[in-house]
Write a structure and sequence with these properties.
By secondary structure, the protein is an alpha+beta fold. The protein has 3 helices and 9 strands; from the N terminus they run H-H-E-E-E-H-E-E-E-E-E-E. Helix content is about 40%, strand content about 30%. The longest helix is centred in the N-terminal third of the chain and has 83 residues. The N and C termini lie far apart (about 120 Å).
Length: about 250
Amino acid sequence: MAVLGGIVSALPPTNLVQKGAYIVAFIVLGGCAWVLVVKQARRTSKSEAELQNGIDRLTDESAEVARLQASNNELQKQLLELAKLNTSLARENISTVTGGDSFCWMQINFQFGHPSPFFNHSGKYPLYEVNVRIVDLNNFRRKIERGEPITLSNEITISVGEVPIDTGGCIERIVIQFSDDSAQDFNVFFLARNGRWTEFLRLRKINDRWLSAIQVSRQYNADGSQVPKEPIFEQVDEGYPRKDKGLVDWE
């Protein structure tokens, strides 16, 4: 159209034939231009539609990726929880078999007319293969003062065996000999499938009645777990003599 306009300007029509030719040329070129504009508009519209479809597909795919990621995160969370549960169940089973953190402790029972050991269970798991060694500290101290050799002759060893949950029992056939009429100190050493622990058993006779103070500390755990720094059990009868500030003399 621009070229044709230039030609018309340079060579203006001088007769009707030339004018008609120019008019026909303008009409033909105008029609061609219109056709081209329509085609270009259609192509642009198609391209825009394809672009929009691509954007929509990308949006859908992004949403699907986000959904899959969320599903994967939830699955990983469930797997982690399952692993924790399995670990907890495994530890629970091991504790049930070994005794876990349960322990037992000894009292002196006078029910049968002589001092006998009475063992009490503490914890949520049964105890297995419990063996006890009872040491009379009164005799131990006297031998040290006299310079006598320390022997095991005055120690008492007991094979207790299994101690069920929430139970207590007295071994009537065993007599615990007292070496003092008013103050008796015992150290009791326990060995079981789940480790070792020690009991300080202190007895004082007040108004013709033996009062006791008991403290239990764990020595080591068979499963290798950390041993508590503080005593795991302590029980002191009311009226038991104490030092200054209300403390019990465990020495």
